[in-house]
Amino acid sequence: MTRTDWTLLLTLSVLWGGSFLFVEIALSGLPALTIVLGRVGLAALVLGAVLALRGVALPRRAWGAVLVMGFLNNVVPFTLFVLAQGRIDGALAAIVNATMPLWTVIVAHLFTTDERITPAKAAALGLGFGGVVVMAGGAAGGEALAILFCLGAALSYGFAGVWGRRFRRMGVLPLATAFGTVAASSLLLLPLVVIVDRPWAMAWPGQGPLWAVAGLALLSTALAYLIYFRLLASAGATNLSLVTFLIPVSAVAMGVVFLGETVLPRHLFGFALIVAGLLAMDGRVLRWANPRMARQGRAAK
User: Fold this and answer.
1) Which helix (H) or strand (E) holds 275?
2) What mean pLDDT value characterizes the chain?
3) FRET label pair with 137: which of 104, 185, 208, 227, CA 20 to 30 Å apart?
């Protein structure tokens, strides 16, 4: 990857890691569904304007698939994470979110024919989910429920990753898919917000929560999507997956610095096991190591 790619990758990790910070602030004055609707609704306006300027439209035939994608990739995980952060710090939520690639492997194994779980992948899955067990070992009550919410959100992302493969076959541009998912999510969430949150009866939340929702929408969603697809084109999906390792680091750092959050040793140890599982499954470290080992072998001769 080029220096620009690395810069964009780090920026993306900060934007997505910052979403947990924004949610913490937004929860001080707004209910969960309203926060999620504000996030996807404002993002839809921005991405829609970008598509209009580029002269790109979302094909009508894709709207059914987009509705499902919006439900799996936005409505379910965004809502579950916000509900979880009402009980745990964003730092811990971000760490559990790192299990998303593990769930994707399981979903792909169950619902596709081209990606199977090999013994090596099974061992990596065991290592990664062992990290979750370590983190949840001392959890009780609200914390345990929140971790389950985060795992459910990560699982939903896994389903979304598998479902989203169809858009390439349909010839839908990635940025059009991104707009479609946030727009569809807004349509799905609007009646729920009206029924559950009754926004006309809410007290004024204050500027902090409102600015936090704006940050969620404009920075952690709209701008993040634009950077994501720029990186996807320039660095490729494999290199882009490195952001999985960086998001929890960014989220934990911002939570500690700006909100005074604390991370327990079992959380760090659990995260280390998750990272180890992801690295083992990714195989990139082994591919990087093999050339060095080969050179050492030749030198020994």
Assistant:
1) helix 265-282
2) 90
3) 104
Which of 25, 38, 34, 40 has the alpha carbon at shortest distance from 206?
A: 25
The whole-angstrom separation of Cα 162 and Cα 242 is 19
Distance CA 57, CA 171 (A): 12
Structure confidence by residue, pLDDT tens digits, 2-45? 899 999 999 999 999 999 999 999 999 999 999 999 999 999 99
Indicate the number of domains in the chain.
1
Q: Which two tokens stand for residue 11?
A: 């920026």
Rounded to whole angstroms, the Cα distance separating 275 from 114 reads: 25
- Whether 205 shows a pLDDT value over 50: the answer reads yes
Q: Which residue has the tokens 């479609």?
A: 180
DSSP string, 216-258: HHIIIIIIHHHHHHHHHHHTHHHHHTTHHHHHHHHHHHHHHHH
Single out the residue of 110, 104, 245, 113 nearest to residue 161, CA to CA.
104
**Does 56 have pLDDT greater than 90?**
no
Is 29 strand, coil or helix? coil
Range of the domain at 247: 3-300
Determine phi and psi for 265, rounding to 5 degrees.
-55, -40
Task: Give Rg (Cα) of the chain.
Answer: 20
How many CB atoms are closer than 10 A to CB 202? Answer: 12
**Cα–Cα dist 301/299, whole Å:** 5
Beta carbons within 8 Å of 78's beta carbon, 6+ residues apart? 36, 39, 40, 153, 185
Q: Residue 92: name the closest of 53, 57, 155, 139 by CA.
A: 139
Provide CB contacts within 8 A for 40, sequence distance 6+.
70, 74, 78, 182, 183, 185, 186, 189, 217, 221
162 close to 71: Cβ distance less than 8 angstroms: no
pLDDT tens track for 119-153: 989 999 999 999 999 988 777 778 999 999 999 99
